[in-house]
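Following the same procedure, backbone shapes were mapped to integers, as reproduced here:
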Amino acid sequence: MASTHTGKEGAVSAAVEALRKAMIAGDRSALDRISAAELSYGHSSGRLENKAEFIEALASGKSGFSAIELEGQKINVVDTIALVRHTFHGTRRKEGDMVKLYTLLIWLQQQHQWKLLARQAAKL
């Protein structure tokens, strides 16, 4: 996904892309690096995961995606907080079906790095 953003928006866009790639790969260390310790990860079903649960589900293969595409992304940066909204198209690895979600990601800038603080998804 090419970015046309500059400055803070560009850095947030790059963090979103790193998250997308780490989720597909189930890359435990990358998911750990990009997630804030206080992560609250909300699924469209209403289920919530903390950082450890989020990482374990993807890294263990319990859940995951073989492909993720993001559409219509909008980024709003306010000081050290970024709000990111987009439509999430994902192909689930185990089931092979496609999910389409509207997601809100909240990112926090900590020591010059953007960390995922919260995520909430809604079914479309």
User: Anything to note?
Assistant: The chain has a mean pLDDT of 94.
